[in-house]
């Protein structure tokens, strides 16, 4: 019996064993995931962020909220030499991490809006150009400080002699390091803060000057308006003034005015106030001068 049962196996697999092996291989093919190159990048990104821990999402929200407000590169956690494609890719990555629908942080929506504003600024050609100009100024300041620090450094001098491109090659390699980018970031904060302060100060002065000119213009308009109203009122009351003058002339008792002003009559005695009025020529007569000689006994 044992020999008869082992005979088919020794002879080779039968039809039933081949079908079972083929079914098993098909099952393995279905269960195995496709290779990474066959997956869509969006699916890979979504699969990655589906496994991100909640604490990582909260930490990223806090980083965005505390990022330097004047530098959109820092908000997106990018190097300053990042390209437009890098900006889009980084925004997509961070927005999936801090999206309010996936992150439970109370300020997730605020962080999401900050990322959107940063991407908008860096995709705007004019704003990006202005930011890059300021960053280049900061970069030059870092280079000057580096040259000053390493002016008498023997190690840098020897490395420059051994390098194919000399000192320029040494500096180019140093600018690729994290140390350089960290110093660049700190210097950029200082330059951006000074630039923003000057901008706000200039804006304030322009606003004050504009307000002063508006007040002056309003004062001129009010003065012109008052003058016009006075002239209008003067023309309106012309007839009243003429009639009043005519009535005054009529009430004069027929006396004709010669146009000469008569001086008032002099009074030599006033019974009510009991004093004698001096003639007109004596009313303002100065007192007699005192003698400068010695007093007489």
Automatic annotation (TrEMBL):
Residues 71-128 form the J domain. SMART domains: DnaJ. Residues 8-24 have a biased composition (Low complexity). Residues 214-241, 267-285 have a biased composition (Basic and acidic residues). Pfam families: DnaJ. InterPro entries: DnaJ_domain, J_dom_sf. Gene3D superfamilies: DnaJ domain (1.10.287.110). Residues 1-42, 214-297 are annotated as: Disordered. SUPFAM superfamilies: Chaperone J-domain. This is J domain-containing protein spf31.
């Amino acid at each position: 019996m044992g020999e008869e049962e082992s005979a088919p196996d020794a002879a080779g697999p039968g039809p039933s064993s081949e079908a079972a092996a083929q079914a098993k291989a098909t099952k393995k093919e279905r269960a195995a995931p496709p290779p990474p190159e066959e997956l869509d990048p969006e699916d890979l990104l979504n699969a990655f962020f589906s496994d991100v821990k909640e604490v990582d999402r909260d930490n990223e929200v806090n980083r965005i909220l505390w990022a330097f407000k004047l530098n959109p590169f820092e908000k997106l956690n990018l190097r300053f030499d990042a390209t437009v494609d890098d900006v889009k890719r980084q925004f997509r990555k961070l927005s999936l991490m801090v999206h309010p629908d996936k992150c439970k942080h109370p300020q997730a929506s605020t962080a999401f809006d900050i990322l959107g504003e940063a991407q908008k600024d860096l995709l705007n050609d004019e704003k990006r150009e202005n930011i890059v100009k300021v960053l280049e100024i900061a970069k030059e300041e870092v280079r000057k400080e580096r040259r000053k620090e390493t002016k008498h450094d023997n190690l840098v001098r020897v490395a420059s002699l051994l390098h194919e491109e000399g000192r320029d090659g040494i500096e180019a390699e140093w600018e690729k390091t994290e140390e350089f980018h960290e110093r660049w970031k700190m210097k950029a904060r200082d330059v951006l803060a000074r630039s923003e302060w000057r901008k706000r100060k200039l804006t304030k002065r322009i606003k004050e000057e504009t307000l002063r000119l508006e007040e002056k213009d309003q004062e001129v308009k009010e003065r012109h308006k008052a003058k016009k109203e006075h002239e209008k009122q003067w023309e309106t009351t012309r007839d009243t003034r003429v009639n009043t003058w005519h009535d005054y002339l009529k009430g004069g008792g027929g006396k004709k005015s010669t146009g000469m002003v008569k001086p008032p009559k002099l009074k030599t005695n006033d019974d009510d106030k009991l004093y004698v009025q001096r003639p007109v020529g004596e009313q303002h007569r100065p007192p007699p001068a005192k003698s400068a000689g010695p007093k007489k006994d």
